[in-house]
Amino acid sequence: MPQLWKIGSIKDILSRHGFTFSKALGQNFLINPTVCPRMAEVSGVTPDSGVIEVGPGIGVLTAELSKRARKVVAIELDDRLLPVLEETLGGRENVTVVHGDILKIDLKGLIEREFAGMGVCLCANLPYYITSQVIMRLLEERLPLRSITVMVQKEAATRLCAPLGSRECGAVTVAVRYFSEPRVVFGVSAGSFLPAPKVDSAVIQLAVRERPPVEVESERAFFRVVKAAFAGRRKTAVNSLSMNLGLPKETVSAAFEGAGIAPTARAENLSMEQLAALAAALFPQMGSSQGEKER
Top EC class per UniProt (predicted)? Predict the structure, then answer.
């Protein structure tokens, strides 16, 4: 296999296949030789496990994962890269390239079909423009994944892994922490890519929880409250919830008082337990009596 992190090798292969980078697809290929081996090493992949990769590009990370995993399934949206991957990954019998959209493909079916009897991880250099969508889909569908190790924009990494109660915390932070235990693993400079993006990146890892850290009567109600609370970050949570849920301020204030929460609290000040208590108080009709557990 050629040294695919070298600019000369990349340009040679892409030129022979008539490939040009697509800004719309957020294509940036790694040219730093240390990043992909390190990502593969921390991904949690073992010789007995399977791994899903999203957006393999020209196959640099794919190759590293294939050295460590029993099987790799790489999902690539851009059909122009399929012949490139056929060349660069040729001979790696434990690698399967699937042409598809990570936001549309039947992931549960893919895991059942491709990874029978294996523990499964996901490891990918995600296109930045769909980072949150991909991560939330992977978590919300409760796929049988042990962990999700992905490279994202540095700013997104800070937001996704922020501690609850911090200024960086947002609705997506709460959702990520509800389904997983996130951490920032290491940073990656913009110069590590071709073409170089305008921002630095970071590799994060989400250890998927077997069960959420807080019991909620209705996940739908819980996430409605989370989204509404953070929709007005400059407002108090009482005002934000009242405005975004269309509820009387008195009703929301009473829920805060019942949960022992200060009326001046802002969304980032609320714990997951407090958000769950507010959801139960504001939407009792969506509780466990209906068996409702979906977003």
Answer: transferase
